[in-house]
Design a protein that fits this description.
Elements lengths: L3 H13 L4 H7 L3 H13 L1 H6 L28
């Protein structure tokens, strides 16, 4: 797992700024870190759908602001 500063930056780029993994790698993040974090976010999507609604602490939150298809093994750019 990368240091928290890197982890937070990758999650912010992916979720809040809608950047693709390739854009993040082009910014200088390690490709292995980006791949791992993005895959972890995707795999845990079903857990977020099962939980009650939580508070939103940024401009964009899980739920209606950020949805990821969990059927048919959907994949984006990787």
């Amino acid at each position: 797992m990368p240091p928290y500063e890197t982890l937070d930056a990758i999650i912010r780029c992916y979720m809040e700024l809608d950047e693709s993994p390739r854009e993040m790698v082009a910014k200088g993040f390690e490709e292995t870190d980006v791949r791992r974090i993005v895959q972890m976010l995707k795999r845990s999507e079903y857990k977020r759908r099962q939980s009650p609604v939580g508070i939103r602490v940024t401009q964009r939150g899980f739920g209606k602001d950020w949805r990821y298809p969990i059927t048919s093994r959907y994949t984006d750019e990787w």
